[in-house]
Design a protein that fits this description.
Strand order of the largest sheet: 2-5-6-1-7
Number of domains: 3
Helix content: 40-55%
Structural class: alpha/beta
Radius of gyration: 25 Å
Number of helices: 17
Number of strands: 10
Largest sheet: 5 strands, parallel
CATH topology of the largest domain: Rossmann fold
CATH superfamily of the largest domain: P-loop containing nucleotide triphosphate hydrolases
Strand content: 5-15%
CATH architecture of the largest domain: 3-Layer(aba) Sandwich
Shape: globular
């Protein structure tokens, strides 16, 4: 396994004293925000570790397409690291000569074909501007400006001057509607991509996201939109797409219609190996190290990290939040030790036995504060019966003494509050559910 590189960011101001300094850290290393491309960021992409096979697979799909198009889907559980994986792909492709930016295009609830196409066209325009600012006066870019402005209006259209553009509108001031975007947009996108391919760029990468936040009905709608946009958007030569979401959402969006399924390659992103989790945390400790003359001390030991990672089922965001919630109240209060010299750190790494009661107390308090007391009782009954069990609506109906319709309503609430997880579907088997890491900490 290659060593973790030392990654210190350049500091423009003197760090403020905090309890994290006891661990020779200038601040908390357990941030949950995505990494950023900027090396001067407090969360630079240089902290990305692991996922070598996934990175190679995605890069091969894009590079191997040559001057053609490509479309790949990344599927995995929430918090597994899909967004950061896409950012790493973008950074490497940008170094290869592809146009891309840190931005993404969300698929929204109750979306429409013109609305999604307009947002993709708008991002394509922005990507070209970001990578080649001098291109703004190019004819293809001038043609795109009208439709881009229309796509960004809340109503999807408006009175916009069309003079000086190549779009086939006869009046100097006209109303541009979503239907106009679908009429003129494909040609404009084709001209933009032709302009990109005629430059020194190898192509453009677009990140489409947000599938994991949609209902089943909205995912079905997204599947139809992607089908409608297959030829005019997804198969434009030189355009490369990465679509990310949960396994069930991506499966539904990609595999519902054969027209989409035949052009999309799907990659399942599994939870990180625990060794890579240790590497990720070590990279963060090195990055946040306060004094270069002394090593940073891991606030939680490896066994504690492994125990929490297992509880959260590979959810990196959940792990980092639990480490933050467990360690922070104990800073300066636990883990202290007698030191033999001034160079020896005054703290040791915390254990799971020290973190668990802090987390149980915190998360139990959050649960008790919920306004829906009936839901608390239902969750408690499940947790106390068997916190490690996997349930279906049928088994929960028996456990709770409710109809399956009432169980569905209760599950929707508990899932939204973060206490229950819906597991990926397996063929025709009933949908299964399990308690989240937070609930397993409460009842474990």
């Amino acid at each position: 396994m290659p060593p973790v590189p030392k990654t210190h960011r350049s500091r423009t101001t003197q760090p403020l004293p905090t309890p994290w300094n006891l661990y020779n850290l200038e601040a908390s290393p357990f941030f949950q925000e995505p990494l950023e491309v900027n090396d001067d960021s407090p969360r630079p992409l240089s902290l990305f570790v692991g996922r070598e096979k996934e990175v190679a697979y995605l890069l091969d799909g894009i590079r191997g397409a040559g001057e053609n198009s490509s479309c790949q889907a990344i599927a995995g559980a929430p918090g597994v690291g899909k967004t950061t994986l896409v950012k790493e792909i973008k950074a490497q492709l940008s170094a290869d000569g592809y146009f891309t930016t840190d931005a993404l295009v969300p698929i929204l609830a109750s979306d429409t074909t013109p609305a999604l196409f307009g947002r993709v066209l708008s991002l394509l325009y922005d990507i070209i501007i970001a990578n080649r600012p001098q291109s703004v006066d190019n004819q293809a870019m001038r043609d795109a400006q009208l439709l881009v402005r229309a796509a960004r209006l809340p109503s999807g259209g408006g009175n916009i001057s069309a003079l000086g553009t190549g779009i086939g509108l006869s009046r100097g001031s006209t109303v541009v509607t979503p239907s106009d975007i679908m009429i003129d947009g494909p040609r404009v996108m084709r001209d933009l991509v032709a302009f990109v391919r005629g430059s020194d760029s190898r192509g453009v990468l677009i990140h489409i996201n947000n599938l994991e936040n949609l209902s089943n009905a909205d995912v079905g709608n997204a599947a139809s939109i992607l089908r409608d946009l297959r030829d005019i958007m997804l198969q434009q030569n030189g355009m490369h797409y990465v679509i990310a979401g949960t396994t069930d959402a991506v499966n539904a969006a990609v595999n519902t219609h054969a027209q989409v399924r035949t052009i999309v390659s799907m990659l399942i992103v599994n939870p990180m190996e625990i060794a890579d989790v240790y590497r990720m945390l070590q990279a963060r400790y090195e990055h946040m190290r306060l004094n270069d003359d002394r090593p940073a001390v891991a606030p939680a030991n490896d066994k504690a990290v492994a125990a929490l990672y297992e509880l959260f089922g590979g959810d990196l965001r959940g792990l980092l939040k639990a480490l933050e919630d467990g360690v922070r109240p104990l800073l300066g209060l636990a883990g202290m030790k007698k030191t033999k010299s001034a160079d020896e750190p005054p703290v040791r790494s915390l254990t799971i036995d020290e973190l668990r009661p802090v987390l149980q107390n915190r998360y139990s308090g959050h649960l008790e504060s919920l306004p829906e007391k009936v839901r608390i009782e239902q969750l408690t009954k499940w947790g106390r019966s068997n916190s490690e069990s996997t349930q279906t609506q049928k088994t929960l109906s028996k456990l709770w003494g409710l109809s399956q319709g009432a169980v569905s309503t209760a599950l929707a609430y508990l899932i939204a509050q973060g206490y229950v997880l819906m597991l990926p579907r397996s063929n025709a088997a009933p949908t299964a559910y399990r308690l989240s890491g937070i609930s397993r900490l409460i009842f474990g």
